[in-house]
Specification:
alpha/beta; about 240 residues; Alpha/beta knot; 6-stranded parallel beta sheet; Ribosomal Protein L25, Chain P; single chain; elongated; 5-stranded mixed beta sheet; 2 domains
Length: about 240
């Protein structure tokens, strides 16, 4: 946990934050912080700063918080064919840590219908994992999560409306290709959209629908990777283009 995050409303009017949960346990048992120590803190979806330990007792930490910095903004969005549930469970924290701003989980021909019934799609389950990823990366911006059960309705009705004019990359196994990537885009510009299909890849129809709407092929090679491996490798390849 590289930054202690708290929700809006947890601080009182005097900018004091009292923790008695896993965060307090981490501060006491892992960071071994004591009175007078300064910790990195941040408000979820808000600024970052420091927290000075005022009291540290068994199971409770009291911090005096000062927020004076801006957290890094998300730099990319992900269109992801719903993976196997256990893979999705592993991905949540990683995607948040890597700076994904919106995670669009969509149906595809090679997605099993039962994947939409998994508890990993419950906000009460995935939100703590997203926060865990933010704590690891030291940032605060919680990714949006969209769940779309229809590939065609999403592509025809929402995709063009929400992502017109931005860089769109279609990840698909095949000969290694590298599209003409732009230089690092400036902060505040439209985020690019990366589409990652099922572990068997997008179908020819799905590729055609996406390419018709401006997606460019972006392949790391012919290996058919697990969804979590593919996502992390692709995002790692693109990360140097993110705004500083």
């Amino acid at each position: 946990m590289n930054r202690i995050l708290f929700a809006d409303g947890e601080c009182d009017a005097e900018h004091r934050l009292v923790l008695r949960d896993r965060r307090a346990a981490h501060i006491l048992n892992v960071l071994r912080a004591g009175v007078g120590d300064t910790l990195r803190v941040g408000r979820i979806d808000g600024p970052v700063g420091t927290g000075c330990v005022e009291t540290a007792s068994a199971g409770e930490i009291r911090l005096r918080v000062a927020l004076d910095g801006a957290a890094p903004e998300p730099w990319i969005d992900l269109l992801l064919a719903v993976p196997r549930p256990k893979v999705l469970g592993r991905l949540w924290a990683q995607l948040a840590a890597l700076g994904v701003g919106r995670i669009i989980l969509v149906n595809a021909a090679r997605v099993e219908r039962c994947y939409f019934d998994t508890h990993w799609l419950d906000p009460a389950v995935y939100t703590p994992l997203l926060i865990e990823g933010l704590e690891q990366a030291g940032t605060t911006r919680l990714p949006e999560v969209w769940i779309r059960r229809g590939f065609k309705p999403f592509v025809e009705d929402e995709l063009e409306r929400g992502y017109a004019g931005c860089l769109k990359l279609l990840a698909h196994p095949g000969p290694a290709t590298d599209v003409s990537l732009p230089p690092p885009w400036p902060a505040g510009s439209a985020r690019p959209l990366l589409a990652v299909g099922p572990e068997g890849g997008w179908t020819a129809y799905e590729c055609g629908q996406l390419e018709t709407r401006g997606f460019q092929r972006f392949s790391l090679g012919s290996r058919a990777l697990r969804t979590d491996t593919a996502c992390l490798a692709l995002l790692g390849r693109l990360l140097p283009l993110a705004p500083a």
